[in-house]
Amino acid sequence: MATPRILLAGDALGRLNQLFKRVSSVSKSAGPFDVLFCVGQFFPESPEQLEEFRAYIEGSCEIPITTYFIGDYGVGAAKFLSAVAKESSNLGFKMDGLKVCHNLYWLRGSGKFTVQGLSVAYLSGRRAASNGQFGAYDQDDIDSLRALSEESGIVDIFLTYPFYQLNFFTNEWPYGVTNGASESKVSSLMLEPTYGDSTISELVAEIKPRYHIAGTMGVFFDREPYANAGATHVTRFIALAPVGNKDKQKFVHGLSLNPASKMPPTEIHAKPPNTTLSPYTHVEETTSNEKRRLFDATPDEQFWRYDVSQKKQKLGDNGDRLCFKYISSGSCARGEQCHFRHDEDAREQCIRGVCFDFLNKGKCDRGPDCKYKHSLQEEGQGFSGRRSESRTGNANRSRECWFCLSSPSVESHLITSIGEYFYCALPKGPLVEDHLLIVPIEHQFNTLHVRPECEKELSILQRSLRDFFKSQEQEVVFFEWAPSRGTHANLQVVPVPLSKAPSVERIFKLAAKKLGFTFETIKESTYSEGRKLLGSHLERSRSLFYAEVPGGGVILKHLVEENEKFPTQFGREVMAGLLNLADKADWRNCQWLMTPGECRNQPWN
């Protein structure tokens, strides 16, 4: 494979004629190039520039190279990008860019993806208290990026190598990036040496990219490479000037860059003669000072160290910091190798709606803007006790949920269809070949308490599945486990042969008797009517299991008592017994290791 050749550009400011004219010129003299990354503000500064900008978006003018941008702010940004986000091809979780038009892709929020073999991480926009508008990133984006950097499943070719590098693009400069740089270079910038965003500094020091590209400062700055603490490779910081700037500073820069995965160790270890120390040492020193203050704090000041045996205790070593990936999703790919703490009690608090920063640091910088709780919650206190927060709050909290389409953890290659309010997916560990999940797109805790329009779509979907399986000489069982502590709902769909359909209700009732409880039977003219009645009986403080069994509107329900130990895999275990598949009662025994490519070749697509 040829060495990837990329172009970098500063703030486009809607001047796409100038940008692509320069790109074409550079490509003729030094190209061809594979891809263009634009940092800084991409959209126009004034309405007068919109006509030129719209000509490219609508296809009147051609974009000559695959282009990615992260500066999603400026005149017209909200209007254009709102429409882009609603396109059917852009629905779901897409870290590799939302397609705006031919050859133009919007990198939204934060993420990491691979292009031309290069691993690219990005943080789009400027810092904001909450990400309620275009062109702004918030703490959720930062936390997600940190989690992505630790996630081996996203760009595994890099994570398997001991010398982990990324190419990292941001709109903002990192605080202190000019520290230790050549005085002649810094003085020409007329900037304070400590200018920038400390959040970016912390991220860059943690991620340790090979190249850090930034915009927004109005100047071109190619810093000397600097060494990274705890890593053998160097980082190069490059800032680009705005397109068409009056000072004629460089706004397009080319790189010929081999992916780290293709490089021999000798090249990765190489340090040019002008390599400096990391400019972010002060960030690490500040963090250390803060930790020392915590070490000296009294136990009462350490209330955030939630522990079942001792809720107030002093902070230990660095490993006592909580792992965001584990706390938010319940798993961490690094396992025992993770440097951060996998705390079940802290995860339980997170499930109950407690702010991660509050759990991890004892405080939250977002203050009243934070949508999460800033006090430890006793058992039984779930999200119903949160501040005025509705579905939007649930979606924000579930950034790392396995089932949220906006989550880095969602396995999109298993999704078979997406509707307005629900999507269908294949389970990781299918019980039978046509086993499906029906999942609400919003972060709902069950499929019973949903808006009327959502229930209507679900009813149509269930009816269609029943008709389909009937054409295959099968009946279908729908069942759901809705725990009081709330996770993202998923309605299980398991087809059964016609010969076994009459036994489903009886087998469920026998299994219930063995566990010491009795199902309540709801019998209505239709399943939809039965679901409405069932929803009216559901109490948020109690867990519920129910199954829609063959027999015309028959639903079996069980409200779990407070101290009752109910097996969360009960429905699957019953169905496994019915179908003589006892070895598949545990989904982990039959995980489907099909790759995204193999999924795309299956007939359900």
Structure description:
Helix 15 (504-515) crosses helix 17 (570-578). The strands form four sheets. Strands 16-17-18-20-19-22-23-21 form an eight-stranded antiparallel β-sheet, sandwiched between helices. Strands 6, 7, 10, 11, 12, 13 and 14 form a seven-stranded mixed β-sheet that branches. A six-stranded mixed β-sheet has the order 4-5-3-2-1-15. The chain starts with a strand and ends in a 5-residue tail after the last helix. It is α/β, with parallel strands linked by helices and 605 residues long.
Describe the secondary structure blueprint for this structure.
Blueprint: E1 5-9, H1 16-30, E2 35-38, H2 50-57, E3 67-69, H3 77-86, E4 98-101, E5 104-106, E6 110-115, E7 118-123, E8 126-127, E9 136-137, H4 139-150, H5 156-159, E10 167-170, H6 183-189, H7 198-207, E11 211-214, E12 221-222, E13 226-227, E14 234-239, E15 252-256, H8 265-269, H9 281-295, H10 324-329, H11 344-351, H12 356-361, H13 391-397, E16 415-418, E17 422-425, E18 436-440, H14 452-471, E19 474-482, E20 491-497, H15 504-515, E21 520-523, H16 527-537, E22 544-549, E23 554-559, H17 570-578, H18 596-600
Parallel strand pairs: 1-2, 2-3, 3-5, 7-10, 8-9, 10-11, 11-14
Antiparallel strand pairs: 1-15, 4-5, 6-7, 12-14, 13-14, 16-17, 17-18, 18-20, 19-20, 19-22, 21-23, 22-23
Helix pairs in contact: 15-17
